[in-house]
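Exercise 7. Given the encoded structure of a 63-residue chain, write a plausible sequence.
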């Protein structure tokens, strides 16, 4: 089950972006996340959906 929820640091590593950028994506609702106590976790499916959205933007088939 833990592989299904990623930490902010894991998302930073996978996207090669800063912590600020990950939290900005969460705040602007481009990247879905959940809170567990005081911890923020990103479902792996949410990261996959965000990457799919990005690939649509790159190819011009996005919104």
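Solution.
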């Amino acid at each position: 089950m833990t592989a299904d929820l990623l930490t902010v640091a894991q998302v930073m590593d996978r996207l090669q972006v800063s912590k600020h950028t990950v939290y900005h994506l969460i705040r602007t609702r481009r990247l879905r996340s959940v809170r567990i106590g005081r911890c923020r976790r990103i479902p792996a499916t949410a990261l996959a959906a965000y990457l799919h959205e990005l690939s649509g933007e790159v190819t011009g088939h996005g919104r």
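Remark. The two ends are 32 Å apart (CA to CA). Students should compare their own answers with the one above.
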